[in-house]
Design a protein that fits this description.
The protein has one domain. It is 41% helix and 0% strand. The chain has two helices and no strands. The protein starts with 21 loop residues before the first helix and ends with a helix. This is DUF3311 domain-containing protein. Pfam families: DUF3311 (PF11755). It comes from Nonomuraea jabiensis.
Length: 69
C-alpha cells in the first residue's frame, strides 16, 4: 500500500494479502479432486476442477490488487 506522501515508507502489510493463500493451498487439497465422477462434457472431475482453480487464482489476485491499490 502506498501512502501517497513523500518520505513515507511503502508497506505491504494488508490483511487482503492473506487471500493469496487460497490459490496456493486449494490445489494442494487432493481430496477435492480425487474422483473420476462427475464428468462434464466427457472430462473427469480433475480436469475441469483444475480450470476452476485457475479462475480462483485470477479472481483472488484481482481482488487483492484492487483492494491494496
Amino acid at each position: 500500500m502506498t501512502t501517497g506522501e513523500p518520505g513515507q515508507p511503502r508497506t505491504d502489510r494488508s490483511p487482503w494479502n492473506w487471500l493469496l493463500i487460497l490459490p496456493i493451498v486449494l490445489p494442494l487439497l487432493t481430496f477435492l479432486f480425487n474422483a473420476d465422477e462427475p464428468r462434464l462434457l466427457g472430462f473427469p472431475l480433475f480436469y475441469w476442477l483444475q480450470l476452476a482453480f485457475i479462475a480462483v487464482g485470477v479472481v483472488s489476485t484481482t481482488i487483492v490488487y484492487r483492494m491494496t491499490k
